[in-house]
Specification:
349 residues; mainly beta; 2 domains; 5-stranded antiparallel beta sheet; 6 helices; 14% helix; DUF1176; DUF1176 domain-containing protein
Length: 349
């Protein structure tokens, strides 16, 4: 590997990727939606030998005097792994400039790996004032230097003299994208107190699997509660969970189907019997809250505004998931709150 090329230019320059199976297997990534995505796309192009695409991620200031020199700079590199930190940004003269902390591990044809770290600066010209041809986010400049740190720890904390940018919560972002994709057009844009519905209440639940050994570490499940909508007296919410095995997924809540018998078949009369005749699943809960002390989600669906008739479900977190453990029904429209329990699994281990 021609490591001197790294120190000689303000842009990194790697030795060209050899014609190996790695180039064919390297994933194709061409994402210009944000600055970090552009950097990852650049390395995708390099690893796939798609040097014209790599060259195109740069703006007016190119990483070499011409394209042939750029390609030749990669003669002895077999592959490049990349890690990125959180981007910071500043606005100036109709543009947004992004600084992205980056570390790469470049492996040559002989299997020797070297680590380089530094920062890239990227530029986005205000999209609203552009005329054709449109310019996406482009790399303005970059400087990577040899690093003695392990690749896993080599990403700089920040770029420039400012404080490190906040670390992006990628799990939260995945949950937010899932919520917007499914409920963006169904749910309100703001909560009743003006908070964006894309900003959920978030919780972290640590636990051990039932069959885990004493020396096994705890696992973590993240819980996200997204407000959805508010009606006259019922508020709905959508829940997502995430863990290291299943990733991000939406919670579905079991609820019983009820057969309610009233005296004289009049719902205003005395309740004679309440029977469970089946179960269904709900993708939203009504008037719900999560209690971190008991690790339960409770939902209370008011059948009318005064709340004298309602159904209440309790969902307990056990072994990485939420299960229905109790269901109470107040089926009498008598002006009093007097529910009866129709399902009780609270005694389960």
């Amino acid at each position: 590997m021609k490591s001197a090329l790294f120190a000689a230019t303000a842009f990194f320059s790697l030795a060209a990727i050899s014609q190996t199976a790695f180039a064919e297997d390297a994933p194709y990534v061409d994402d210009r939606s944000d600055a970090v995505a552009v950097i990852r796309s650049l390395y995708s192009a390099i690893n796939r030998h798609e040097f014209a695409r790599a060259w195109d991620y740069y703006g007016d200031t190119k990483p070499a005097k011409d394209f042939d020199t750029f390609v030749k700079g990669y003669d002895s590199t077999d592959k490049v792994d990349v890690k990125t930190g959180a981007a910071s940004s500043d606005g100036a003269a109709g543009s947004i400039f992004y600084n992205v902390p980056v570390a790469i591990q470049a492996t040559d044809k002989d299997g020797e790996a070297k680590v380089f770290a530094g920062c890239y600066t990227l530029r986005q010209v205000n999209a609203q004032v552009q005329e054709p041809p449109f310019l996406p986010i482009l790399i303005d400049k970059g400087a990577l230097k040899p690093s003695t740190a392990n690749f896993e720890d080599a990403v700089p904390a920040s770029c420039g003299d400012g404080p490190p940018p906040p670390k992006q919560d990628t799990v939260l972002e995945q949950a937010r994208k899932a919520f917007v994709a499914t409920y963006g057009d169904q749910c309100d844009k703001q909560t009743p107190d003006g908070k964006p519905t894309t900003e959920p209440d978030a919780y972290s639940l640590h636990y051990k699997d039932t069959n885990a050994g004493a020396d096994e570490p705890e696992r973590e499940t993240r819980l996200f509660r997204f407000f959805c909508s508010m009606a006259a007296y019922n508020e709905s919410a959508v829940y997502y969970v995430a863990d290291d095995v299943m990733g991000v997924r939406q919670l579905q809540f079991a609820s019983p189907e009820l057969d309610i018998r009233y005296e004289n078949n009049n719902s205003e009369g005395k309740v004679e019997a309440v029977h469970i005749i089946g179960f269904q699943t709900d993708d939203q809960l009504v008037n719900s809250d999560y209690d971190d002390k008991t690790r339960t989600i409770t939902s209370m669906n008011k059948w009318r505004g005064v709340g004298d008739a309602s159904s209440t479900g309790t969902y307990l977190f056990r072994n990485g998931n939420f299960s229905l453990v109790q269901y109470d029904v107040d089926a009498s429209y008598d002006g009093e709150i007097n529910p009866q329990t129709v399902l009780d699994y609270n005694t389960a281990p």
